[in-house]
Amino acid sequence: MIYNLPNLCDHKNMNEKKIDFDKILDQIRVFAPATVANMICGFDILGFAVDYPGDEVNMYRVAEPGVRIRSIQGDDGRLPLDADKNTVSACVKMLLKHLGIEKELGVEIELIKHMPIGSGLGSSSASTVAGLFAINTLLGNPLSKEELLPFCVEGERLACGHGHADNVAPALMGGITLVRGYEPLDVIALPVPEELYAGVVFPKVDVPTRDARQLIKEKVLLKEAVTQWGNIAGLVAGLYRKDYDLISRSMQDVLIEPTRAILIPEFYAMKQIALDAGALSFGISGSGPSVVAIARGQEIAEQAAARIQQHLTDCEIDSFKYVSAVNVGGPKVL
Amino acid sequence: MIYNLPNLCDHKNMNEKKIDFDKILDQIRVFAPATVANMICGFDILGFAVDYPGDEVNMYRVAEPGVRIRSIQGDDGRLPLDADKNTVSACVKMLLKHLGIEKELGVEIELIKHMPIGSGLGSSSASTVAGLFAINTLLGNPLSKEELLPFCVEGERLACGHGHADNVAPALMGGITLVRGYEPLDVIALPVPEELYAGVVFPKVDVPTRDARQLIKEKVLLKEAVTQWGNIAGLVAGLYRKDYDLISRSMQDVLIEPTRAILIPEFYAMKQIALDAGALSFGISGSGPSVVAIARGQEIAEQAAARIQQHLTDCEIDSFKYVSAVNVGGPKVL
């Protein structure tokens, strides 16, 4: 599916997407899922959503026009309440402007974060997707999910400085997504083998996305790039074939992991534990520090994650653990 | 499918693969197809076979033990008749040694080349595959195709100095193949959308594989590698979905083509002609100088190839033209 990224705030669609103010809902509550970007080998192009954790947006229609943040929970006070600076409200404003109703409609937002910021689980993407899905649903779905995606990408640009789609695409579309390219934005939904589970562990150490990106070298060996794209092609084929052995052989990252693993305590010990527990693969979720054991079946994912967490506890590192199937629906109204 | 590449000449399989000398055929004639390695975006990992052209091996069982080349046609005298130096006979000897019967069996080979050497169409691979498929069939198929593949890769190493599988794998297996990796050799058959046709044009200029490889830089920009592997993943998904638009968008090479195109006269003019004729994509076949227009349907492939050839004629460059569907059977007994 190709997405156009025009000037998102222009009014050209105002008449096409006529909003019936009588039908706007008074309130809505939306959950959007966390995501595991890269899916081990597919740096910047692959990602998948998980059922758990995720962020929630509670949105209210109010009389006074404008977009405001009412409250934020679960962010330890790290996110701005200023509606122009907060990514969620900024994206909602952008959408209202695009629809030409930003001066008429008033909405207030409660943001409830159920996952840590800077965890490598697409925390900002989940919030952005929840906010945009919420306002679109509140308005009676003037835009399709496909039409919402460019706004989500813009939100990622506001939050992280990079308009990457490898978190927002799976958070919005659900499942496993491939971002084939950006010029134009071209997102493909890949099949989800139903026994695929993720055991995610977030060691409570701080690895800002920007730092994790800066570590990565601008140039790579062609030989290693060939190994990487052989694996990426193998993974895509494996997903279509539901061939868990092929998926396992393919989910290896020879390019990015060796650099980013340095920032994550006990990375290689955790990897060995996950593989010993029978995981298909193990690696960094997004830019880390969360790590993910990808497994065939819930039980192995549970075991791998539990053993990894125990190891971190033994090393006196606090952590969170989340075990989930690959999410197939994307955001949902609660 | 994972292939082991053990010491190919050891005798450990001698007893398992017992050859019944009474059942060995007296003569066999085998055709093996030309191949388009890389498939535009998949440098060193993707390739497909075409129905036409291809090489033929005519093999005779003779009384005197040993492997000999009886004659070679179509090589302009460029290939060695010495059975130890000719890749086809050297591979046949290797297989006989592996089976432990090299001192008992005598075979003589006629090699008939139907495509130019150094054309970028997997000329040496087609001959190697024809030879190995011929001897295996002559012997009553002691090895499966999967078991033959490592011998074909070894033949490629003898011929080109590199043990690449992106030509021999499709030549032997037919269809579109992915070489996921080499340690161990892991080859995946990808689906072949039935309307996929190739219009191949070989401009008669000399681009030795070794030179074409040496032009390529050891390091590449990660940004460009990401673009490339997005395309590779998109192509694999497109093949499974039979989505010709996605296949078309994905078959773009930002990394290798800009360098290798320099060696091919009129490359960008030919590319424009192919795309104007409605081809899904256009690029270099293997290391060139053959070029390929990949099209949906025979007619467009024919038109693209014919117009490209006409352009080369206008530029006073001789050429050969081959239009074919993707071959799905691999080598065949004639």
Automatic annotation (TrEMBL), chains A, B:
GO cellular component: cytoplasm
Biological processes per GO annotation: threonine biosynthetic process
EC number: 2.7.1.39
SUPFAM superfamilies for the chain: GHMP Kinase, C-terminal domain (SSF55060), Ribosomal protein S5 domain 2-like (SSF54211)
A Pfam family this chain is assigned to: GHMP_kinases_C
GO terms assigned for molecular function: ATP binding; homoserine kinase activity
Location of this chain's protein in the cell: Cytoplasm
Ranges of residues in domain GHMP kinase C-terminal: 236-312
Domain spans labelled GHMP kinase N-terminal: 86-175
Binding sites annotated in the UniProt record for ATP: 116-126
Reactions catalysed: L-homoserine + ATP = O-phospho-L-homoserine + ADP + H(+)
Keywords: Amino-acid biosynthesis, ATP-binding, Cytoplasm, Kinase, Nucleotide-binding, Threonine biosynthesis, Transferase
Root EC class: transferase
Function: Catalyzes the ATP-dependent phosphorylation of L-homoserine to L-homoserine phosphate.
Similarity comment text for this entry: Belongs to the GHMP kinase family. Homoserine kinase subfamily.
UniProt-recorded name of the protein: Homoserine kinase
The species this protein was found in: Sphingobacterium wenxiniae
